[in-house]
Amino acid sequence: MYPFNFISVGMDVSADFSWMSILTPDYKPVGKPFKIYHDDLDSLKMTSSIIKKAEESNSMKAHIFLESTGIYHLPLFCYLKESGFEVFLLNPLITNSNKNSGIRKVKNDKFDSIRIAKIGFSHDLKVSLIPSDLVLNLRALVREYYYLIDSKTSYVNKLHKEIRMVFPGYLKVFSSIVGKTSFKILKSYNSPQDILSAPKGDIVDLIASTSRMGMKFALKKYEKLIDAATLSTYYGKYLESVFHIIQMNIEFIELYLEKIDSILNKINDYLLEYEDELFIKQIHLLDSINGVGFISAVTLMCEIGDFSAFSKPKQLFAYFGMDPDVKESGKFKGTKSHMSKRGSRIARRVLFNLALSSVRTNGNGKAINPVLKDYYDKKKESKPKMVAIGAIMHKLSNIIFAVLRDNKPFVLITPESHCKSYEVSKLMVA
Length: 430
Description:
Elements: E1 6-13, E2 17-23, E3 34-37, H1 41-58, E4 61-67, H2 73-82, E5 86-90, H3 92-97, H4 109-119, H5 133-166, H6 180-188, H7 192-197, H8 200-211, H9 215-234, H10 240-273, H11 278-287, H12 294-304, H13 313-320, E6 328-329, E7 332-333, H14 345-358, H15 370-380, H16 385-406, H17 415-429
Parallel strand pairs: 1-4, 4-5
Antiparallel strand pairs: 1-2, 2-3, 6-7
């Protein structure tokens, strides 16, 4: 008797087509590998028919295994699931680790589908979960948000470089070059010469009305602006094409800002529409953590998906890719370990930014998270700064796990208070 009572269907998924192979528990192939065309309904129906015939001829249910491929696997996964089959997702790290299981080096889609089918018979095989439609919708919006943020940043950097060449003093006039007042000036006056020749009253009124900071502020900014424009006549190169590029970059940045606002509004709509869902309540729980903002909370929960899949904090570390890589062979044990970085890149990005903000102080000199700030300062005494930041990321991951596990908002307590409450709870149990 074989230890498995199902036939394994392996599918190697690509953008336009997939290859399917079916194996019995003794690794015997059922028919030849079959090519599935994603844009052909007959091909999809034939796929279902082949799997059902294989189930009937072997008197076993089929377990279908697909490698997670970003977006390409999702339509096929949903089609097979809705057709009544048991479908499972495999982490690409699992399938990649089995590529060299044979002596010969073979890489083609047919062979990969057979290899995936064999992996389906592995003991203690870990499969991924397909998130709910709510999670998938929010995840798509959040990832698009970060794409737009990165694209906007690239144009902001280009704008800095162009202005530094033709209008070098301008960068010190306004606190933010992409602020409303700065953009209004750049759009209204195409060059330093235009600013120098414009009536003083027009520029002062523009600054005052856009910034809403009053005439005194506007006059100070005007003087700085004139000084910068005068400097550019001596230091800087006037190029008409560069000023045209500056205007174009401003248009791109404003477009990205508009789309970013649209994304944020859509995320808010989902949160309001599904406010009674557990997933949305978990977002609000993460939002209660010191230093965690709205978009960070949404991002982390979208990357986590179904929290019930995590029973230990270490599992969450590994999912975020913050677990250390291990280098050991025989008597050799590596002393330098780094983050594996095999998990969610976006979640790690958010945690890194949260770690930085957690150890900062606000305007009145108070730490955003005094407990983490003290821990960070002590860690820096013996470790490099980035190692200390990595330790803060681990602490934040612990906090996230505890908040979601206990289903309670975050409460900031000192380590001493935590130890006392733990001792009290032990006495009560005893």
